[in-house]
Batch of 4 targets.
Target 1
Amino acid sequence: MANLKDIRRRIKSINNTAKITRAMEMVSAAKMKKAIDSVLAIREYAHSAWSILGNLSRAFERYDYGLLEIRPVKKVLMVVITSNRGLCGSFNSQTIKKIMAQVNNPGSLIVNRVGKKKINPKIDLEKVEIDFITIGRKGEKLVQRLGKKIIATFPELTYLPGIESVRPVSKIIIDEYLEKKYDKVVIVYTDFISAMSQESKIRQLLPVSKIDLEKQIADIDNLAEEYDLEKPIKEYKIEPSPRKVLKHIFPRLIEMQIYHAILESNASKESSRMMAMRNATDSAKEIADDLTLMHNQIRQMKITQEISEISAGRAALE
């Protein structure tokens, strides 16, 4: 039979744990509200930015501009967005599964898109090289365990960064691609759907893909048709010249893609952490209730036993 003192000690310990998880839930709820407000505020701009980027990539495919250049994929740069800490449910595990799947089978990574067509180079998958840029320490630790190369890491960008904080990331990505060190750049992030639901995504950053941009816009909500992405481009009038304009506008729009992915991941992280702490609090309360019931039952049994012994002793004396 369990000791009443041990049960009381366990109940006290579990109640203290519930207080901690409840406090963490409240902190995460406050952070989640700020994170969701930030990502909702940026979505309208992201719609317009990605629409422009998709239309420009389609309208100027004939121009030999570096960020539009399609080449056989032999080396891939993967940008990974995770958290610095745990206790956030399946947020990191979903991203880690996505990364592991791509590392173990990079067949989809080497595919490039031109319009509606897919270009799948004939290359031994074992020869495909994947390097990483990590945002968040959890992703950094995973890549280190895999023995892959990390060309840059940014653990400080995991909570509500400003757009200026993202520029070093986008500069590295663009410079490495223009120097032809990598043939494709993808980003792995978690798309915020609701406080109860988040989904890990992998999207192509470079070369600029109209198909991927349309998917990203459609993922935000169901209003992609408002941007007329399926209508043919009639005319773009650009001054002073297409090359000069594209040279400046493409980096800014790619920067916005990265910034938006970080905000989506941040909102997903805080939502997942809040729900994880809420579930932990509820579980702690259930365990404490079960232990309290057990404590009361054992106590009642002992009281009943003592009464029976006293009654039996009195009967023997009589």
Note: The longest strand covers residues 184-192.
Target 2
Amino acid sequence: MTVHRLEEMSTPALDALERARTVVVLTVSPLEAHGPHLPVGVDAFAARHFAETIAERLVSARPGWSVVLAPTLHLGSFTFEAAGTIAVRQRVVRDALVDYGAALARSGFRFILVANGHAGPGHLTALDEAATIVSRRHGVTMASFTGHLAWEFLRGRYVRAIEDELGRGLTADERAAFAEDAHGGWWETSLMLLLRPDLVHDSFRTLPPARYSLARRLVPNYPLKNGGLGYVGHPALADPAFAKATTEVLMREALAIVEGLLDGRLEPADRHSPFFQVPFFRTNFWRTAGLTTAAVAATAGLLGWLRSRSRQPSKSAHPRP
């Protein structure tokens, strides 16, 4: 029942791990601007916390198993551009993960998970592409499922479970704020207050809500246009208790997926991000598609996604199981 850090292990120590009962977790997220109140490493902090918590729970639930945590890769595409953001081409993100996964597979590791804290559609697609390529080429199970969890979370699928963890229902205003939250807002500010409060500037308490219509969300870098401060949502609502409740729900959902993958009850494709199914988010799409067709498809797809995202979660829409 051991959690290891890859960079601290020797080759003999790695060779000694039983491959059939070892999981390797790759953590990958970009450095990206998250408003005036949060550090550029928000996504990476979130992904690392996710990876470490999953590792601890997995070895606790499975005596005799080991988890190896790889160092965080600060890589990500589909980011908002500002000072501190390091934008990486989608192809680079995919290929880096393919190389990491392939190296681990050649070393005999059979279970490789990708922990990620960034929800850019093309970024999530690149992670799914990499996992698919490595799984197919090397006959292992490599899975990136945090995009699936982020999608379900942002759609409000876990609202009832979050309310149960909080011990209270969300108010109507909170439900509206949850539906508008996207980047550097209520949830991410809450999470950083939980993980690294020393890195959260006190100005978050007085930041006004940043709401964006569907049309405005189609504009590149929209949170930083026309005086925008680079966040989307309601950072002033941030509360560590909210972060604790939401992460507990997300961890339970994640562990259920991981258990299914390890037992063979789930395939990585069963928990792909929905963006993986949309052609214009694929790494090679813009090289092969006609510009007009691509633009029309992209606009239609984004509008559909943003419409579904903009709906407020309702109690009737999320019945208790």
Note: The chain has one domain: 2-168+246-310.
Target 3
Amino acid sequence: MKPSKIKGIFEKNNKIFTENLRNCKGIRVYNEKLFSYKGNEYRSWNPYRSKFAAAILKGLENINIKPDSQVLYLGAATGTTVSHFSDIVKEGMVYAVENSPISVKKLLESTSKRHNLIPILSDANHPDRYCSIVPFVDILYQDISQRNQADIFINNISKYLKKNSQGLIMVKARSIDVSLQPKKVYEIVTDKLEEHNLKIVDIFDLSPYEKDHAAILISN
């Protein structure tokens, strides 16, 4: 087990792991494998279940996430990737926004012992609705399969992302336009982001882990 280039993420045999929170030892979120090493417990991170893990295995390393980072996560679902963010920002906080009551219920059940994770039942199309809970953040992460996903990302960045910070959007090409080739959709999204003065840091096609998906890392 050795640290990766991203603080809080570890590597072993071409697989990646995060260190489980101490009060969550022995607890799985999505039936992931647990691995003990030198007194610490690590959780395997499946790139076929998490687009963030897929992006890391495709070369993402320039994301400035730290143990005390504040993270806004849009499209939290039931907590697979969210829980790994919680492991990484042990001294920070993850604000996990999800608009499905069923998913939020499962998220609450699977992450109830995670002190640094706040599930929020709300619609990311309306960032004003959670402004009483979410502060300015260091990282804004989005995984939402809606046609206007780029607009949602931009609007939340303008509302919550600190200056000189980063955002990471998982672009779902088929949700935007099924008639276009995914690469063309990625170009349309990057052009829109740049129109709003966001700098493209890196782009990663997520195949073979996720078909017709790309991860786009930006700075503001």
Note: The chain has six helices and twelve strands.
Target 4
Amino acid sequence: MEDKTPIISFKDADIVNGEATVIYGLDMDVYPGDFVYIVGKVGTGKTSIIRTIIAENPLSKGSGMACGYNLVGIRDKDIPYLRRRMGVVFQDFQLLMDRSVEENLLFVLRATGWKSEEDMRKRMTAVLEAVGMELKAHKMPHQLSGGEQQRIAIARSLLNDPQVIIADEPTGNLDNETADGIMKLLTGINRDKGTAIVMVTHNRQIFEKYPGRVMVCKEETCCEQKADEAIDLELTI
């Protein structure tokens, strides 16, 4: 197998939530094209790892790199540039409810340095087509179903052609059928574009049906396990 540089790498890193350390000695590498699940019960530090990757939580012990940026002591002015190299998808969509789908996406493009109106509209159309929502550009978020809103959130995460999509419980607020559609979309992006995916979930049915690498958080640690072993763990709420 060819030698690849990881997009995300932690070595002996302590992950914090506020003042408390929730995971000790994290070792994790995410490579181009990987699909990595971070699983475990509620409160085991899954989301704290995500927040550390996007430089929302500080990293003060061990080492951590994400998309070419050193997470130890990262400067505030560098954090927006780090986040432009990754797409982030949240459980609660986090769309701007006072503007249309089109304006949600254009807002992100303008905020991340795009200048040409023509180029922005071409990119917006491309990502909406990628998630099957090209006919919904003029809709307001409240006019869309939960699954449609999450598809728009995924389209938003693709705008700057990220190296990795960070997805924090992206199916958590969706029914099983809708969640299945979102997983097919994410796995398709991973397969067809080679975009790495790091996904937090406590739903074992998801990583059983859509295989990937599995990092299990428990007892203040997070270690990679074989998927079939992880499926046997008590992970769900």
Note: The chain has eight helices and ten strands.
